[in-house]
Amino acid sequence: MPPPQLPPPISRHVAVIGAGAAGLVCARELRREGHDVVVFERDNQVGGTWVYNPRVEPDPLSLDPNRRIIHSSLYSSLRTNLPREVMGFKDYPFIAKNDKKRDQRRFPGHREVLLYLQDFASEFGIEEMVRFDTEVVHVGPVEDNIGKWIVRSKRKISDDDREVSFGFDVDEEIYDAVVICNGHYTEPRIAQIPGISSWPGKQMHSHNYRTPEGFQDQVAILIGSSASSDDISREIAGVAKEVHVTSRSVVDETYQEQPGYDNMWLHSMIESVHGDGSVVFRNGRVVVADIILHCTGYKYHFPFLDTNGIVTVDENRVAPLYKHVFPPVLAPWLSFVGLPWKVVPFPLVELQTKWIAGVLSGHIALPSPEEMMEDVKAFYETLEASNKPKHYTHNLGGCQFEYDNWLASQCGCPEIEEWRRQMYDAASKSRRLRPEIYRDEWDDDDLVLEAYGDFTKYT
Ligand code: FAD
Which chain positions lie within coiled-coil regions (predicted)? Predict the structure, then answer.
């Protein structure tokens, strides 16, 4: 029997918003599948989050909706929190280059990740698809033409040598499909603190943290116990008088001096703050502090998107989305890439975009809108039944690799490698147990060997 013939792929005119890791791999997958692709990028280079910017926003809490946005939240000293073997795209491994100018560490600094993404863009000729300095300001369905989208964008007109902006060219075009890859670590979420309006100290969000100098001899409170808070608290403790980290995931009595430090403590949540500068914790301790640093995460934000209320962001749930990607009634003409968190982002977005590209060309079938909506409802009911708050909707924590493998099965490509799963688990455990040294000492060399063996398929 001859193999069944696939129908010829249908080529679509597709707009991709953003040229970070997600937008780059999305452009590659769409083009591989025969689509005609335009990537809009408001910065003047590829890389998104990994383009470190020493400048910060004028408003340290980033509350002013009209502020000049700085996209990246990277701090100067940042090294990856995943080993490079785990972190890279599946078919374009993030291997250490035999080049003295490159960072060859397993957990490299942020510049090495940017160079890797630049290598990726040049290897696959992505830049020719990107319109730089071009911000998408509106995406909405074309009236009376279901499945078509208006994309309005404004392009900076500037003198490159002098970096002077002369204004904007505004453009309006029609696309068959729009893929949103705009990142979700730019719009800060701020903790609500009773009494904060009368507290006289300084506040900022980690989005606007670059280096510890401003914390010299200060008494600092850090809210949150995420990866950023872990790194930043240690860095600040080197210069500050005292550092108090408060976490909502510890019991109310918690008060612990942090191992290896005589000026850093872990507390339970803040109960209130007061006009005399004091900060009262649920454990009963009172500290007079100079500065509160919110390491409290970010909000999904799509200021350009108008779906007539079909897609909403409520308590940080982007809904309704089938498998975190397609709004059922707008599928496949609108899709979101990279929303899941507590994941390994690069291979995940690689698989999501393969799926989107295949669905758009007709190679991969989606269930009907009604069936997708049923699936979404059932998913939300499962979250509710297990008391997961809405803002955990896109947290794939324990099931990210099952999700990846489901996507792989849709695309007919191999599952996530066993070594990658095991290495991810080993790195997570080591980060928890040995936060100071996990980036420089490890005991999974056998897995590293296995990974590099696997990489020979692609290098
Ligand atoms: P981004 O990289 O944010 O790219 C989005 C792009 O969209 C940007 O270039 C932006 O300019 C553009 N854009 C946005 N809006 C518009 C618009 N309206 N018009 C045109 N362009 C627009 N991941 C790891 O794998 N390992 C790590 O160690 C790691 N550490 C991290 C540390 C920090 C502090 C942060 C914030 C994130 C970290 N991440 C890490 C996660 C990181 O976000 C992902 O690795 C990845 O960079 C996300 O890529 P993205 O393309 O989805 O988004």
Answer: none
Residue 22 Ramachandran class (φ > 0 left, ψ -120 to 50 alpha, else beta): alpha
Return the pLDDT at 9.
Answer: 80
**Residue nearest ligand 1's atom 27 by CA:** 80
Ligand 1 mean position, distance from CA 338 (Å): 9
Q: Whose CA is nearest to atom 14 of ligand 1?
A: 182
> 1 or 191: whose pLDDT is higher?
191
Q: CB of 25 closer than 6 A to ligand 1?
A: no
Phi, psi torsion values for 449, nearest 5 degrees: -60, -45
Give yes or no for a contact between 83 and 106, defined as CB atoms under 8 angstroms apart: yes
Query: Does the interface predicted TM-score (ipTM) exceed 0.95?
Result: yes
Q: In what order do the strands lie in the sheet with 130-131?
A: 130-131, 36-40, 13-17, 177-180, 334-336
Q: How far is the CA of 21 from the centre of ligand 1 (A)?
A: 7
Beta-ladder partners of 277: none
161-180 residue pLDDT tens? 555 566 788 999 999 999 99
Average model confidence (pLDDT) across the chain: 95
| Mean pLDDT in residue range 397-419 | 97
